[in-house]
Write a structure and sequence with these properties.
The longest helix is centred in the first third of the chain and has 14 residues. A hairpin with a 4-residue loop joins strand 11 and strand 12. The protein is globular. It contains 6 helices and 12 strands. The chain starts with a helix and ends with a strand. By secondary structure, the protein is an alpha+beta fold.
Amino acid sequence: MTTAETALSAHPFDTAIALDRAAESPHHYRGVTSPAYWNMVGPFGGSTAATALQAVMLHPQRLGEPLALTVNYAAALAEGEFAIHARPVRTNRSTQHWLIEMTQVDAAGNSQLVLTATAVTAARRETWSQNDRPLPTVSAPEDTPEVILFAGSEWVRRYAIRPVRGGIPSVMDDSGDDSLSQFWLRDQPPRPLDFAALASMADAFFPRVWLRRARRVPAGTVSLTVYFHAGSAELAAHGSDFLLGQAEGQAFKNGFFDQAGHLWSRSGDLLATTHQMVYFKE
């Protein structure tokens, strides 16, 4: 299906991550930004990470399923067309390692790098399993009111978000004392969960510095890593139900902070963990 065909028939998320194979090689893809996932100065970082992963998912040489994804945001993606180069650089018996680059032609006609990424895919097998990070005890999504976290960005309207604790402070007065948030979320409108959607949801946590300081300062993700603990069968079984997300900052210093996050299914399966480094400005 071409990008144009997808745009006419698909969920807004599928439209946002749609790619066409370029003619020059199986490693090259082309796409176009979506206004449905627009953030302050470019697309939502989660949908951009998902687009990078989608190039791997579409690649004819892919082995297995996503295990890890790390995305480094070199520059804001501008509105319009972009290109992705994704290639496997090492294939072992059960793992495959990928390099991914996203570029965009600027107003002067020069190709500029906007994103670099690495990914690992793997052939999963049945083994002993244990979840040492259980689902927190929280109210059910049906008993938790839905909110729009911040109305200034279009992408937040693409998710149903129901905060349990740690929402954006209503008063920004430097009185914050922790950075822990928990909320239920799912695609809006509902969409069956897959790896690309899970990668995008891993970036759905607002900057921890806003909560920790109770001050909304400029902030943006520099590097995002997602570890996938579930395979495609588990994601398919989850369907379009809510996930519980939890995120907490760990160190805020010299204009950067890191935040760790977890995403569980309602039944308690830990589907993904995430870690990111974020820039912030006074």
